[in-house]
Design goal:
Layout lengths: L1 E6 L6 E6 L4 E6 L5 H18 L6 E7 L2 E7 L12 H18 L5 E4 L8 E2 L6 E2 L6 E6 L2 H12 L10 H15 L5 H5 L1 H11 L4 H6 L11 H12 L1
Antiparallel strand pairs: 1-2, 2-3, 3-5, 4-5, 6-9, 7-8
Length: 238
């Protein structure tokens, strides 16, 4: 039995199919233009698999032709958490992700990145969380903490839906988590001006040109106005 999970959504022209009888998720690109994302995901999964040093084998098969690419990914046991649920309900899982990042990502100034880490890209089970959907992976060196800071921001901003009246409980939980990652040695600019930091990276680094062109609304910091940035960075962060 097959089920189409996604058909050329986010502007990347990638089709995603669940093939339960084969125990795989199949991602297909039908043009050289859209193969960009399949190749990124393949490289990201291999990098991540080596990073966590688990017995899990993520990729079952990879096919790369002139105008076609197919990536078969083995099913993973577990569940996902709604990425727009309020932080007071997702705190436990966000904190697990922070610990997972600290445990496995190389502790050096610059590291490769997932590039779009939100709760929708994490599978949870009785062990460590597992990061999935590596279509924005880059082995270019970015600041350590890039992915986990992006995840934390998404955990409070995405449920907010552009309002400037965040729930006080969510603010307190976010502050606790933000202090936790700040004490791990993140870049000071990420800690003090996180939305501004990501907006600058996404609009000045060539790694993101095609991604933003194809999916202009995918990276949430880019949708935030200067007024929202000022509100968040001058009130919530400080």
């Amino acid at each position: 039995m097959s089920e189409i999970l996604r058909h050329t959504s986010h502007g990347n022209n990638i089709s995603v199919i669940s093939l339960k009888s084969l125990g795989i998720i199949r991602k297909i690109a039908f043009s050289n233009y859209s193969k960009f994302y399949i190749l990124k995901e393949k490289n990201g999964l291999y990098w991540y698999q080596n990073l966590i040093n688990e017995e899990l084998i993520f990729i079952k098969e990879f096919v790369n032709l002139k105008d076609y690419a197919k990536l078969d990914i083995n099913f993973l046991d577990g569940f996902t958490i709604n990425y727009i649920a309020p932080l007071r309900k997702t705190y436990f899982y966000i904190n697990q992700c922070v610990d997972h990042y600290v445990k496995y990502w190389p502790k050096r100034q610059f590291v490769p990145i997932h590039g779009d880490l939100t709760l929708s890209n994490v599978i949870f089970n009785n062990k460590d969380p597992i990061c999935i959907d590596w279509e924005h992976f880059s082995d270019e060196q970015f600041d350590w903490g890039f992915d986990i800071a992006y995840l934390l921001l998404s955990s409070i901003i995405l449920p907010d839906r552009n309002k400037q009246d965040l729930n006080p409980k969510d603010i307190l939980i976010f502050s606790k988590l933000w202090k936790k990652i700040a004490n791990l040695g993140l870049n000071k600019v990420i800690i003090e001006r996180p939305i501004s930091y990501f907006k600058k990276i996404f609009t000045t680094n060539k790694n993101w040109e095609k991604i933003i062109c194809d999916s202009p609304y995918k990276l949430f910091p880019l949708s935030k106005s200067n007024e929202y940035c000022a509100y968040f960075e001058n009130i919530i962060i400080k």
